[in-house]
Amino acid sequence: MWGNKMRRCVFEFVLMLVAAVFGFSSMAWSDPAQLEDISFASLPGDSFEVKLSFSDTPPQPQGYTVDNPARIVIDLPGVASVLKEKKHQLSFGNARSAVVVSAGDKTRLIVNMVSTAPYETTIDGSVLTLVVGSPESGKAVSPALASSVVTTERSVSSKSESTVTN
Q1: Per-residue pLDDT for 29 more than 80?
Q2: Given this model, what pLDDT does residue 32 score?
Q3: Backbone φ/ψ region at 26: left (φ over 0), alpha (ψ -120 to 50), beta
Q4: Which of 71, 92, 125, 154 lies at 20 to 30 Å from 116 by C-alpha?
Q5: Which has more confidence, 127 or 160?
Q6: Mean pLDDT of 35-40
């Protein structure tokens, strides 16, 4: 009699263990968000924007700038790129080119520039917008827009330590 109870307990334990393993595994194996489109536009005041469209809400970007050569690097963890083109030549203002690379479940956007510039990122639904450069002088940003802007910036220079501004 005790043997049957023991077998039943072991059987229930194994079932719970299998359910837990498959439950956690399916979460780990879920499809990452996909970067589906990228577009570029020149803005007033020697600035430009990069719009990234995703299959789902994109993650919070992690970014930094490099002084020499001048570039902005934006990391997107949990994102796979399905873009057909990886390199995009840019022909306005401070922008030279943009490169999108993916490895595993991480995608990186590298914006190559003539000189370093400040940038801001915003997320609206499934679109992440990167605005590079100073806005046109004399134009104020609306309070609604200012409150929705998330700035992610970290500067890396060969002569100084990294700084992070959030």
Answers
A1: no
A2: 77
A3: alpha
A4: 125
A5: 127
A6: 96
Under the banding of pLDDT at 50, 70 and 90, the label for residue 154 is: very low
User: Per the structure block, which two tokens stand in for 83?
Assistant: 């873009």
Tokens of 5: 């109870």
Residue with tokens 């873009």: 83
10, two tokens: 């072991």
DSSP state of 162: -
Task: For residue 95, give the 3-state DSSP assignment.
Answer: strand
- The token pair at 30 is 């879920």
**Triad 143, 149, 154: Cα angle to 5°:** 135
Q: Position 3: which residue type?
A: G
Q: Is 55 exposed, middle or buried (0-12, 13-18, 19+ CB in 10 A)?
A: middle
- Starting at the edge strand that comes first in sequence, how are the strands of the sheet with 79-81 ordered? 79-81, 33-43, 47-54, 127-132, 119-124
Computed from CA positions of residues 117, 55, 62, 86, in that sequence, does the dihedral angle turn out positive or negative?
Answer: negative
